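Posting for a labmate who doesn't have an account.
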Amino acid sequence: MRLAGKVVLVTGGAKRLGQLIALALAERGAHIAFSYRTSAQAARFTVKAIEQHGVRALAIRADLSRAADVRRLAEQVKRRFGRLDVLVNSAANFDRTPFETLAERDWDHALDANLKGPFLCALAAGRLMRRGGKIINFADWAGVRPYRDYLPYCVSKAGVIGLTKALAKELAPRIQVNAIAPGPILPPHDMSVAARRRAARREPLQRWGSPQDIVNTVLFLIEGTDFMTGSTVFVDGGQLIA
């Protein structure tokens, strides 16, 4: 698939990694719709940045854990662009939840954002992609090798890997569905320099990756191959084998 002239929906596209993905796809000539939940100011900036590439942009406020919001999101994409070719499910949360204080609300918060949201968006996108298309989900290496203090998050990302395989089978051959499982790419804002160095030393490549590594993988799954589905690509510096 070539991105020029295609329509892409990026969830969580107003800031951080989602924004970088949206801008990279716009640079390739794709029209971009993206969702945001609370980052209205960042969304306005991102719309202007996308439009500087000579393509159309649409920002839609939505709670992706609510089916009604996702239906409205899909309807607005269809009304504005008339089609959808690619869905990038990048919206997620990453909350520390120590077992001693873990509560039902922590579980619901993680599973709603990281698994239910991608499912609802894929359901809506799959019905919009009448000419075929691609869905890219965001998993995590911790979905295969969970670590402490993030139990709901790790379970949610394991679910994304399973969701990717199941969707790939359901939607083949018309739609290809793959996932990206990042390792250490963007550290949390409250992570100290010392903690970042310790994290880097634990993996074979002994360094943090770049957001560009993830952007390049998204571009590969869209433009680089039309013969992958149901796969999870680990972009983790070797963290999975450490």
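Reply:
Got it, the structure tokens are right above this. Helices lie at 16-27, 40-51, 67-81, 104-128, 151-171, 193-201, 211-224.
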